[in-house]
Design a protein that fits this description.
By secondary structure, the protein is an alpha/beta fold. It has two domains: 216 residues, Ribonuclease Inhibitor (Leucine-rich repeat, LRR (right-handed beta-alpha superhelix), Alpha-Beta Horseshoe), CATH 3.80.10; 105 residues, Death Domain, Fas (Orthogonal Bundle), CATH 1.10.533.10. 28% of the residues lie in helices and 8% in strands. The chain has a nine-stranded parallel sheet, with no helix packed on it. Helix 2 runs antiparallel to helix 5, helix 3 crosses helix 6 and helix 6 packs antiparallel against helix 7. It is elongated. The N and C termini lie far apart (57 Å). One of its GO terms (cellular component) is cytoplasm. Keywords: Leucine-rich repeat, Repeat. InterPro entries: DD_LRRD1, DEATH-like_dom_sf, Death_dom, Leu-rich_rpt, Leu-rich_rpt_typical-subtyp, LRR_dom_sf, LRR_domain-containing, LRR_R13L4/SHOC2-like. This is Leucine-rich repeat and death domain-containing protein 1.
Amino acid sequence: SRNKLSSFSGHLCRLTKLIYLDLSENEINSIPKEVSNMKYLQVLLLYHNKFVSFPRELCALNSLQTLDLSENQIQCIPSDICNLQVIKDLNLSNSQLVSFPSEICHLSSLEKLKLCQINGLKLTKLPEELSKLTCLRELDISHNALKEIPEGIGELKHLVILAANNNYISQLPKSVTSLSDLQQLNLSDQATVMLPSGLQHLQSLKDINVDGNPLIRPPQEVCKGKQLYTIVRYLESADERDGKILQKILKIISGNVSFENFEFFCQKLQFNNAEIKSLENNRTLVLEEKILQALESWKSENQALTPAEMIDQLIRILTMTGMHYLTNKVKALKLYTQSLKF
């Protein structure tokens, strides 16, 4: 490395028994096709060179396990990359990739992937296909412009380190809580306002960093010590509180929806006509009880949502039905209870 080489010499390709090769910090921009002769090469370091695309010739290195192409100007990845069937460690940080290369998602042996873009072109989206990298243990997607992490992240059951700091992620997917092997989670310096319930399932987690976020749930002062137990206890208490608020809101709504609005309201709760007629024709229940039954049924159908998310969904439904007085009443209750310290 650091020899200001302008090319990958064909003479190197004659070293067919070579296992480790470091040609980093040079001015190389292409790879000779003879590189395929280096059948035993396991580690290849090419960071800080002049590549503008991923060299297709490297895809013939069947024994390659570690490849570092960071600090280049790489703009695209060839589909042939799937031929790297034993690759474990891939670094494409500080590149010029316009979008996350879905071709990477076919590297089923990959254990470590770095796409940290401090000085590179910022990625704005991660593909759902990321979930195919089931052997992944370390994922660095820091310093990008990501607004969300796909739900498929929960399929990466062996993930130990997730670095997603310095992005624009406002909320983590619930599936993150299924990453039972996760030990380090870095979410610092972005737009995260709430952490998901269920963090107690991350039993291996040792280090969680959420500094520099406009956190509301839990508030930043709860997270300062980076103690998972403290954060989890807060979230559990918040869920319990929100559950009580939700029940109160259901009762408020059931007592304030008129007969004229009943059918339209039930439609917004995603009830079909037969279900609505069945409720309407139930003479054993008064209107308030019918509405409460409808709401309880809606609640049971939406168990995937947290109580807080259910409250937000109900506010949207009330807004759509045009019941502004009731909408404002529910909003006021939500804001008041959120302002209470516990």
